[in-house]
Amino acid sequence: MSTSVETGSFKDYFRGLYQGVTSTAKGMWITFKYVWSHKPVTIEYPEVREVLPEKARMRLYNDSQNCISCTNCANACPVDCIYISSVSRPKGEDIPKTSNGQAIRKILTQFDIDTALCCYCGLCTTVCPTECLTHSHDYEFSQYAVEGFIVDYLDPEVKQWRDRIVKNP
Amino acid sequence: MASQNPDNYQLSATEPNVTTEEALKSQLMTLNMGPQHPATHGVLRVEILTDSEVVAKAIPHLGYLHRCMEKHCENLDYRGIIPFVDRLDYLAAMNMELGYALTVEKMAGTEVPRRAQLIRVLVSELQRIASHLMAFGTYAIDLGAFSPFLYAFDEREKILRLFEEISGARLLYNYIWLGGVWNDISEQQLERISEFCDHFEGEVDKYNNLVTHNKIFKDRTCNVGTLTAEDCFAYGATGPVLRGSGVDWDLRKVDPYCGYEEFDFDVPLGAGEEGTIGDCWNRYYVRMKEMKESVKIIRQVLDKIEDGPIMGKVSKVLKLPKGEVYVRTECPRGELGIHLVSEENGKKPYRMKVKSPCFTHTSMLPFMAPGQMIADFVATIGSIDIVLGEVDR
Q1: Beta-carbon separation of B80 and A34 below 8 A
Q2: Residue of A nearest to B153 (CA)
């Protein structure tokens, strides 16, 4: 740490002293202004919750009623965390339709997403033809074990917390 | 310590109590900095041989954040690589995406609409400010000042909030897509960016008063870790490290990409106002000045932005012709180069090599370290501003 104070003359010593005092005072003045004039920006989290922007990408939610088992999302996923399996519908049975009018030709038997692997990039939601796979605003899903992160979207319990994770509460 | 070891004393009858020069030399002590050290900006481990408090030798050890990113990319389609490219330099993900998108677009010959191009410049300059704010804040922490970090995060939060609104994520955006950008920016958000620019220029002056021109800060950083222009050329340094040594080299000016040639801005250079050219203070001050230049570019983008499409024509399953391409872009930390080799009608790259600025700068540490005090070495690591996600890939 070679400075003018160490190597310089007597005059330099006092100049350094003066600069030290003035620049520190200037910095302290800025800090003191923050004390009185600046509003706190932190949020007291569990009590106060931030409203997330509309496009925020949190846990995925699949509305399995509208899913047509096209596996576009599983193909687009860069980390392969979506597991889908389906069987073809028996002949003669009525083909149900999704809310936007597409025929559901296959019966969905498995739709699992490993939330621990998911990287929340949003590529799967953009390729979904029926827009049934969306990012919800639910960010509180900590688990005790890694296995708990595999979410089965055909489970009736998942439909129960659908109300909890609707966008824009 | 030598004095505790009686073997080091060689007393002779003719010259009592005189030690030889060899005996006076103290033993070198090995000291590990990191991998979980608060002053190393990530999981960098530096093995230091210290002679009392002076660093005799420093050996950086890498690989604590290695994710085989380049190998992963060989098994992914071109769109799926973007989330991986985000994770290179996680503090400047927009610039990483821009570099990758430009590479693939150059190969595919895609035209990017003008609005998308301007939005790209806008977000990458905002990201540059956010990244430099992080560099400023953590550098102040390295040197023992805590509150500047909080002030910097206050401003950075505004940029991240904006990015969260337009892209959906705070850090790893997946926003710049091949052929354009994912979402459009609304008028209201552009208004907010404009307000942020007006507010932010005053903030930079405040940071300069608080930290840059502080006597203690200058004593810690001036004449420390000096790199001459020749050293920078020899090691291949880029970005603020090279410009801090007074070399006028900015890829936005030298090799313009993404329409940077139409913007009017200066390239700040280290001039040695307080110490010698190329010391830590100069590298740091180049970043502070660059934030103001970024604000200048953002203002020009806001003037020029016009309505139009945000996505160019890109086929649904992207297949590139056979060939290889190298594209370099100016990231907050230096030159990011992406070398892409593709096979005929390949959906996946044959090879993707990333030239990262942080790796180059980390390799300069053994050169800069010898002869420094340990405290100065911390200041040196902070001033080259490395992100280990990019070093290890």
Answers
A1: no
A2: A41
pTM over 0.90: no
Q: B76 near B68, Cβ under 8 Å?
A: no
Least confident of B33-37, B146-150, B206-210, B259-263: B33-37
Distance between A92 CA and the closest CA of chain B, angstroms: 35
Task: Say which CATH number the domain at B197 has.
Answer: 1.10.645.10
What's the structural domain count of chain B?
1
Whether residues A57 and B168 touch (CB distance < 8 A) is answered with yes
B171 contacts B155 by C-beta, under 8 angstroms: no
B271–A contact, CB cutoff 8 A:
no
In a domain, B45, yes or no: no
The ipTM estimated for the assembled molecules is 0.80
Residue at B37 is within a domain: no
Q: How far is A41 from chain B (nearest CA, A)?
A: 8
Average pLDDT over residues B249-264: 88
Q: Given an 8 Å threshold on Cβ–Cβ distance, is B183 in contact with A55?
A: yes
Cβ neighbour number for residue B11 with a 10 Å cutoff: 12
pLDDT class of A49 with cuts at 50, 70, 90: confident
**Residue among B80, B172, B209 minimizing CB distance to A27:** B209
How much is the mean pLDDT over chain B?
Answer: 85
Neighbour count for residue A68 (Cβ, 10 Å): 19
CA distance B129 to B158: 11
Whether B165 and A1 lie within 8 Å, measured CB to CB = no
In which domain, by residue range, is B270 found?
69-392
Flag if A53 and B206 touch (Cβ within 8 Å).
Answer: no
